[in-house]
Amino acid sequence: MVFVGNPFVEQFYCRKLVPGKQNCILVPVLKYGCSLYLLQYFEHVEEAEWAVHVMKESGKAVAATLCIGPEGDMAGVSAGDCAVRLVKAGADIVGVNCHFDPAISLKTMKLMKEGLEAAKLKAHLMVQPLAYHTPDCSKQGFIDLPEFPFALEPRIATRWDMHKYARSAYDLGIRYIGGCCGFEPYHIRAIAEELATERGFLPEGSEKHDAWGTCLAMHTKPWVRARAQRAYWEKMLPATGLPYSPAFSKPDSWGVTKGDDVLIQQVEATSNDQLKEMFEKQKKFTGIVA
Asked: Are the beta carbons of 188 and 179 closer than 8 angstroms?
């Protein structure tokens, strides 16, 4: 398997143009004899289409995932239409990854599935959400949150959240169920354990603990022993322990999107003058003084 993502495509892969397409393409990876090419982290479905067209030349299976939410891509293409366009471009597997939590990602997947059904198209479905709760995100997802990227830990989902996510994804018809930023080994184990019956076996490491906290039956404190049941953990609403922590944050949406000068990438490191410009913009939008 080879993973190829955007925006790194332009910087790290040759700029070979496909006739008739303004394309930054992935030709170098075709030399690897892989059984599956996974194209992921695209904010614009148009760019993902370009990548799919090229990777299909390999004759191998191609999976394509977008980092979008229920509102669709950054150009305004709906989630359903994004799925349709990817399949028509040749993708065998379509879905979403990153930017949003499991609940929001599954809402997007439902819209993508409905779009495919309406167009009478078929494809396998894939979902790889964040392990962070992001109910307060705007269209661009968690990168707009003020906590991004170094203060997201209070938003981490529990292993019990992952059980719920895995079951919901499976019931939706998704068969490639994984995770992206924030996922830890115990999160992936929880997914595999929730679907152990469907898979026919438990994942490695399951022997190191008892499912749903049943090992607590041996705890010295009776109120902890009472937690040795699935119902307790399914209904748990964890607190952050941060006395002044708000439930939601205000996303830093600066109102810029594809085509804005401030989004132009460069090879060289960001200069001090450029940083000062960003600090001034931050002060304008958030009131934070650097």
From this structure: yes
**Residue in 69, 21, 71 with CA at minimum distance from that of residue 48:** 21
DSSP 69: B
- What is residue 57's predicted lDDT score, i.e. its pLDDT? 81
Cα separation, 178 vs 39, in Å, equals 15
Q: Is 176 helix (H, G, I), strand (E, B) or coil?
A: strand
**CA atoms within a 13 Å half-sphere pointing along the CA-CB vector of 135:** 6
**Running DSSP on this structure, what letter comes out for residue 74?**
T
DSSP 215-237: GGGG-SSHHHHTT-SHHHHHT--
3-state helix, strand, coil in the chain (%, to 5): 45, 10, 45
| Confidence (pTM) | 0.84
Angle made by CA atoms 139, 22, 261, in degrees to the nearest 5: 50
Whether a cis peptide bond, with omega within 30° of 0, leads into 149 is yes
d(CA 86, CA 92): 9
CA angle 271, 277, 281 (to 5 degrees): 145
Which mean pLDDT values do the consecutive 10-residue runs of the chain (290 residues) have? 48 44 53 80 92 85 96 96 98 97 98 98 98 94 94 95 98 98 96 96 89 90 92 90 85 67 76 82 67
Per the CB < 8 A criterion, the answer to whether 1 and 38 are in contact is yes
Sign of the Cα pseudo-torsion (234, 237, 239, 240, in order): positive
User: Residue 249: what pLDDT?
Assistant: 86
pLDDT, residue 209, reads 86
Whether the link from the prior residue into 154 is cis, omega within 30° of 0, is no
CA–CA distance, 184 with 193 (Å, rounded to integer)? 14
| Per-residue pLDDT at 286 | 66
Looking at residue 30, its pLDDT comes to 62
Residue type, 55: M
